[in-house]
Amino acid sequence: MSDVFSKMRRGRLQYAFKREADRQAMTITEDATSYWATFAAQHIDQHFDNDEERGIAAEKAERALNPIMSALAKANGNDVSLAACKSFVAAPSVVVFPWTKATPD
């Protein structure tokens, strides 16, 4: 059952990521979208024990996409690639993920 919820969360996050990219008129790759959706879903699964808490965390993750997208856009000239996403995650001081109680590993 947890796997089903994880797929639903990933899909919702992927949609939110694309929607935010469209809103900011940014170029975005499928790989980058999948990467962020999977990354967020994995963090949510690690930090929350039940599906209700995970659902709330996924909603917070969706809202958190705006500052993430803005920072990526500024750093990469509005072209968000998979490499840009990975380098952004590698700099934990840049962003705190509000759906967890920690920064990325």
- Mean residue pLDDT: 68
Helix content: over 70%
State the distance separating the first and last CA atoms: 26 Å
CATH topology: Helicase, Ruva Protein, domain 3
> What is the CA-atom radius of gyration, in angstroms?
13 Å
Q: What letter string, H or E per element, gives the SSE order?
A: HEHHEH
Low-confidence stretches: 92-96, 98-105
- Strand arrangement, major sheet: 1-2
CATH class: Mainly Alpha
Q: Count the helices. How many?
A: 4
Q: Quick one: overall form?
A: elongated
CATH architecture, by name, is Orthogonal Bundle
Q: How many strand segments?
A: 2
How many domains, in number, for the residues? 1
Strand content: under 5%
Biggest beta-sheet profile: 2 strands, parallel
Main features:
4 helices, two-stranded parallel ribbon, Helicase, Ruva Protein, domain 3, disordered C terminus, 105 residues, mainly alpha
List the helices and strands and how they pair.
Blueprint: H1 2-23, E1 27-28, H2 30-47, H3 51-76, E2 79-80, H4 82-89
Parallel strand pairs: 1-2
Helix pairs in contact: 1-2, 1-3, 2-3, 2-4
